[in-house]
Amino acid sequence: MTATADETRGTPHGTAPTPLSVLDLVTVGAGRTATDALRTSVDIARLAESRGYHRYWVAEHHSMPGVASSSPAVILAHLAAHTTRIRLGSGGVMLPNHAPLVIAEQFGTLEAMAPGRVDLGLGRAPGTDGATAAALRRTDSLNEGADDFPQQLAELVRFLDDDFPDGHPYRRIHAVPGPIQATSPGGVQSPHRPPVWLLGSSGFSARLAGSLGLPFAFAHHFSAQNTVPALDLYRESFRPSAVLDEPYALIGVSALATEDENEARRQVRAAALSMVRLRTGRPGLVPSPEEAEAYPFSPMEQEFIDSWNANVIHGTVDEVRSGLDDLHKRTGADELMITSHAHAGDLRLRSYELIADAYGLPND
For the chain, does the N or the C end have fewer beta carbons within 10 angstroms? Predict the structure, then answer.
């Protein structure tokens, strides 16, 4: 049992040049709670489903007060209960942080909850700082997980497909829910299993995804300078597989559309301040625009802000649509996965609605 291209490829709607999707970090603004952020995630997922966005992914991060997405599988189960059609997945689960069997069990359970609409996106970074990664993995050998990533990936796929060879020490171990249920007396198993995606911000996962014939997701939203080289490497490395006969790559894009251009700039600057604090070891809640306006940026911090925001598509809806179109032309991405950052959840929700309107996406 393997995933198919039909479970990977999306269909553009309206005048969008490519399928549009959503990446959610479940951000928590100052003065808000994680409960508020998760309620916003449900609202965005419902909107995305009704407006023809193709998939909705949640990213794994740890020890960051402003990002409440430490447990993607739990959040996805919650979203599955509030949606019926949109694909749900991880963007991604950080494989070195977890035992492959645990991931196979979690996503087998999600597949049972939402048959035929669950994606398993995998990354090899920790999604946090080194000390937190050590706590997650209960080891000080942090490089070991990244170096072993291809082996961990192979093990996870074996658990998903329940096809360890005879003589393998895991031959009699089964991820449940999973294919073993179909071979048990009276067993009936879903024909689906979550498609595996590889995520990356450099060339390692691009080359590995290509060599394995898997779909690839690149983190353009925080590694824009590597986007085109990584996509080129993925396409050059691609070998047809049982999953895909030709490459399929999406890119994560940071974009925020508002009715007022100045408001977009204020929100984006506040989100960038959050990144300044994270990069300097002071992670916190996403500050308000007013806090960002009053913050005394050093010249080095201002340089970071300018560089960071140069890769955030923001402004009026026409400006954002133009920016997304240009990015698609430059990269040839098969899908654009939009992540919107703002202090207030209602502005994030409105941004996705404005982008859907700009492209004439359906309104079910």
Answer: C
